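help with this record:
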Amino acid sequence: MGQINMENSSNIFKWKHFESEIILLTVRWYLQYRFSYRDLVEIMSERGISISHTTIMRWVHEYSPEIAKRVRPHLKTVNDSWRCDETYIKVKGHWTYLYRAVDSTGKTIDFMLSEKRDAKAAELFFQKALALDHVQTPRVITVDKNPSYPAAIETLKKNKKLPQDILMRQVKYLNNIIEQDHRFIKKRTSPMLGFKSFETAKKTIQGIETMHIIKKGQVKLKNLSVPNNVQLFQQLFGSMA
């Protein structure tokens, strides 16, 4: 992996009342497992550490985007066969749309939470994914019957963001791989019973998706045991988590 900026790592925990190890541990557990904030309060209390559930919530909102940002440069390259779909996430009592894409082996390409489900949202999602360093220009994109996808792809072709000869397939059974992958994300978001704001939903989902990416073994780290995230977080943040 690349060089970690230790000074930058320490600055993001400046003025916190708890050690960085405790902060990252609780955030990682919340994002990865089906724990509530109050579950984590009890778990840490058994270890002699008193933390309020609102403090853990603030940590999740603050550090989920930081975890995602630090993982991104170290992702393995995905292949050029995209499977795209969206799933539903409740925010403030209303449904929003989580656009997601994986490659033909199930590796995460990218994700994006959107308040709308239309051609513009699909186009923004594709543009966001295409800008990532670990992503290849797709040779084929498999989508469902949502009419916004063909419209978005045509716009990107016209703007020369996608090649003219790209193959778009609307074949439901070929998208089973991403529909199965949605389940891992929904297992974590469903017990949360909805989010209070779009921004906090966006930040939390960044963390959940990143932990799922790590679990899939998409991070380039020599001698990393996939279930053991301690070594990975130690290198990303310069601390034990």
User: Anything to note?
Assistant: The longest strand covers residues 81-91. The domain at 81-192 is CATH 3.30.420.10 (Nucleotidyltransferase; domain 5). The first helix runs from residue 6 to 11.
